[in-house]
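Here is one record:
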Amino acid sequence: MHKGKEQKHGGSVYGRAFIRRESVDAHKRLMHNYFGSPPIFLEIYFRHRFRMSKDLFIHICNSVKQHDRSFEQRRNCTWLLEHSTKEKVTAALRMMAYGVPADYIDDTLVMAESTSIFYVKQFAKTMVEVFGAEYSRAPNAQDTQRLLEMNKARGFPGRAFFPSIFAGEPVDSPPLPATPTVSGDEGILGASA
């Protein structure tokens, strides 16, 4: 490196070990497990693990890829394929939904910790940019009615069971207990009743 010039981000970093991650094999495994014909794990397992339908997942992948070029599968400087869109979105969703640490993604999707953190940040930003206008607003009357009808079909009682909540009337609640005490005297928690 020349004197007076700052090092650019990227490239090999002195002192770091190179780990040959087989992202193509991880992609094949993900596709075989969930998107193959027939998949190893059925739709019910997909819904349980991804917390959404397969169609919604594919819609999110396509929307994110269309909006942010970093989610496209590209080749790196050594002409090897990088992670696929589905791998990147899966990593971001698992970290956000389950709260798993970034290095856990390395075990399942063979994605480095720094890479998975990058895609979580990009995914969150892209989701707000793509879907924010539609889903980040307060629900209107049509949305509320649609949700009530969906819940009624599922067996949730709705307005008939909780009329005061939906009518805007105050709900009677039990009186709050007196300030808690420790052994009946003025202890750590405050004055006695």
Residues 11 and 160 are 63 Å apart (CA to CA). Helices lie at 23-35, 43-50, 54-67, 85-98, 102-109, 113-135, 141-154, 163-167. The chain is about 50% helix and 0% strand. The two ends are 73 Å apart (CA to CA).
